[in-house]
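Q: What residues go here?
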């Protein structure tokens, strides 16, 4: 466990706070009831959830609902989902790995990693390509618009969901659909465009496609992430569970080409267990070689201190508990709570009901907090 996040020594924490067997069974029942309640909500075909806290002896996964509306096949905990922006944490961690290896500097101008045409295109739209750094992109502080949220982009995707997008097409869209939001380093504004540039940074430095590069930099195999892969760029692992069908407004989008969200802003497919395992490993000191790298990832990059984003990670206050988290467009989320030695990850299969995954994961944290403090784990379920 990373030392800065220990509120109690793990052994002492486990002795003081480990629920009884009966309490753990009640907690697991409450978690399953929670997932069932989400999947029974209107327009939510299915939900998955994974919770892991070794300090209290908790490792639990559950699912409810169906994997495919058309067939009625039941959803199982091992099924995989497109994770969309949860991918950004992996991308940020990969850039930070390159930094701790001395292969790039976080304050390098990003133009050093772009092609001349890309620099000219973005510079011609008013972006100061000498001022925007790798760190600015990591922190969503580059002043770049978010092509992914542009109505024109969603319209183009829905008009031809099988189109194979390129990174340059998405950059061209960012130039066409909006102007710079302001100078770099001044304000936070979430941007998929910035993260597809970071995807190119990784490719330029490593000389590999993004998927294999991230896999190697973060050590997926050593971490046991056997149900995680980058669509298009990697084959599906033989050990991965089947992909659940995901929907937007009831429309099955499994056949939509993954390139619409594949170059660094998104791209990964994982199980909820693998998503949680990566997040736990990140804070457990098994992704970075040096403690200072995680410290850098979690340092507030901009004034004011209320800025919610660090470098690839959001920080939240969950009823007095500091939580680090990220979510994704398709309805997935991972949350790590150091005080509870807890990670939860989950997803819903209907994008328009993505708020349900926030409710589900927040409530799961509250259940575990209640169980470790001797309270009821099933209140509010």
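A:
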């Amino acid at each position: 466990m990373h030392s800065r996040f220990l509120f109690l020594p793990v052994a002492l924490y486990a002795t003081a706070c480990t629920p009884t067997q009966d309490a753990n069974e009640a907690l697991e029942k409450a978690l399953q009831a929670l997932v069932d309640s989400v999947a029974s909500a209107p327009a939510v075909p299915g939900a998955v959830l994974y919770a892991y806290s070794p300090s209290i002896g908790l490792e639990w996964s559950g699912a409810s609902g169906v994997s495919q509306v058309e067939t009625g096949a039941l959803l199982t905990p091992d099924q995989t989902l497109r994770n969309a922006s949860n991918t950004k944490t992996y991308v940020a961690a990969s850039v930070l790995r390159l930094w701790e290896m001395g292969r790039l500097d976080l304050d390098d101008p990003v133009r050093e990693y772009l092609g001349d045409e890309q620099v000219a295109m973005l510079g011609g739209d008013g972006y100061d390509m000498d001022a925007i750094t790798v760190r600015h992109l990591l922190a969503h502080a580059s002043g770049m618009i978010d092509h992914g949220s542009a109505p024109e982009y969603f319209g183009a995707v829905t008009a031809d969901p099988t189109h194979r997008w390129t990174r340059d097409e998405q950059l061209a869209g960012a130039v066409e659909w909006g102007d710079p939001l302001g100078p770099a380093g001044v304000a936070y504004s979430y941007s998929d465009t910035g993260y597809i540039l970071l995807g190119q940074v990784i490719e330029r430095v490593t000389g590999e496609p993004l998927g294999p590069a991230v896999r190697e930099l973060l050590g997926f195999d050593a971490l046991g992430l056997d149900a995680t892969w980058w669509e298009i760029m990697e084959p599906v692992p033989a050990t991965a569970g089947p992909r659940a069908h995901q929907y937007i407004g009831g429309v099955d989008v499994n056949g939509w080409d993954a390139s619409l969200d594949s170059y660094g802003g998104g791209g990964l497919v994982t199980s909820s267990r693998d998503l949680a395992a990566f997040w736990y490993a990140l804070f457990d000191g098994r992704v970075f070689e040096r403690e200072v790298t995680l410290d850098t990832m979690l340092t507030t990059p901009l004034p004011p201190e209320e800025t919610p984003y660090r470098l690839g990670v959001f920080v939240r206050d969950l009823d007095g508990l500091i939580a680090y988290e990220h979510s994704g467009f398709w309805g997935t989320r991972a949350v790590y709570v150091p005080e509870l030695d807890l990670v939860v990850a989950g997803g819903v299969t209907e994008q328009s009901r993505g708020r349900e995954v926030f409710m589900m994961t927040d409530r799961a944290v509250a259940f575990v907090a209640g169980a470790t403090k001797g309270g009821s784990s099933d209140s509010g379920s």
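A: Context that may help when evaluating the design: The chain has a mean pLDDT of 93. The CA atoms of residues 269 and 303 lie 34 Å apart.
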